[in-house]
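Why do we care about 3D structure at all? Because function follows from shape, and shape follows, mostly, from sequence. That is the central idea of this module. The next example makes it concrete: a single protein chain, its amino acid sequence, and then its structure expressed as tokens.
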Amino acid sequence: MKVSSTLRTLTLTLLSATLAASAQTAAPASTASSTTKILQLVTFNDVYEIQPVDGGTAGGAARVASLVKRLRAQNPNTLVLFAGDLLSPSVMSGVFKGEQMIAAFNSIGVDYATLGNHELDFGLPTLKTRLGESKFKWLSANISESATDAPITGTQPDALVTVGDVKVGVFGLSYDFTPILSDKTAVKFADPIQTAQTEAKKLRGEGAQYVIAITHQDASDDCALSKAVSGIDFIVGGHDHSMMSNTQCGNAPYVKANSDARNIWSVTVDLNGKSPVYTYQNIPVTPAIPEEKATADVVASYADKLNADFATVLGQTDVPLDATEASARGKESNLGDFIADSIRTVAGSDIAVMNGGSIRTDTTYPVGQLTKKDAFSILPFGNTLVVVKVKGDVVRQMLENSVSQVESTAGRFLQISGATYAFNPKAPAGSRIVDATVGGKPLDDSATYSVAINDYMYSGGDGYTIFQNLPTTATLVGPSEGPLLAQILSNAITSAGHIAPQTDGRIQIR
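And the structure:
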């Protein structure tokens, strides 16, 4: 599969000039009929923050809203499509449970969205509340409520909309993320490709001249979808957190944006000929884009509610702290060490682990002050400490699961304390651990160890099903008893005053 990060990148200056010119120049009468068959698809995905990220240099809902307004002025035949992961995780979402995200996206003017895996982080009832607050439509063709066998209340499988002179069919599709749900019985998933075949045929039968799938799944799955289903014209994807476009795989091209609206895609589709002609614009969302006032006011209102308490300074780091996704999910990181050590100190356990997918922000914190907001941004999910007592063979299975998908930077990868492990990423999954120690001694499969995990892992999240059916006596600290992990991190920073964690070889790649 050949994936290019961009087919065309425009500078903001050039984009602004183009948009300004298009807004001021009416289309000649002779081209009016042709322009009504030129669609513009504005797409982005995996947005967790309504404020700018990367120190204010990228993203931000108010900038996106301003950009959307300009793009609509350029071409009123525009659909704004969001490919999932909105409600969580972030500091604000930990407090407001995604309410602020819906308010901001209502202001931006999104048309259609599909469900990502993080939409269910707060459970099905909260998701339904957020769906009910949405002014835009949520499309989900392959997810249904287990209790009713019907689409989740507040979603619909698809939509048929006339854009200019074109009838456009749109449907939503998500990968089966049952293994990472805290409540694995609330919803169920139909096969994505079979669902897509049904949806494409249905929409064509209803008169759709152009069919779009909004998906939340891996790029490889989007490629497979494009190859398997001939009735789809274009795929708007999410989940990968990478800016990519692909015109080489299957029947339909696809695009994906990176996370937190650092960039968005504007794809122009000319349908005047026998086949669609595409023009791709990868647009950076930078401080040079002015903030749209109404959306900025929404953002400010939620920020004001949060900032007073979260501005509290906890302490200082004397070294950069590595919270990047690549490190948290693939190798030892100094922040991962500090978090795991802090948890083990509180738990008093032999081993403490933290799944890398729970360490967020995907950034490096510079030397300087650390606030309560920083701590709750790093661990935003509201997870609690759980301590279990298990045999060494369970610990070994835990470590094997940790590295079983390391090549795809899966969130199950474990940062660890009180133990070490070495793995061979080229070996078959399930046989990758080549060495492991606990307390400086070789891991003994028959020995008993206390292990601090989190409530997400305890419920089987990220493939840790080994913890789901433990006997009652094996749980030393249950999910409703342990403290918040973000609070453990906050307390550890406050207690130390100054921190300077260093990696020490507790995780090795061989």
